[in-house]
Amino acid sequence: MLEAKLQNFIEKELSCRCCGKLIINHEALIYLQAFRYYLNRKYGKNIRIIPTCGTRCYQHNIDVGGEKGSYHLSGQAFDIISPDITYRQIYDAAIESRLFSTVIRYDKSLFVHVDTRKRARYKIESWVENK
Ligand SMILES: [Zn+2]
Ligand SMILES: [Zn+2]
Question: Fewer CB atoms < 10 Å away: N or C end of the chain?
Answer without folding.
Answer: N
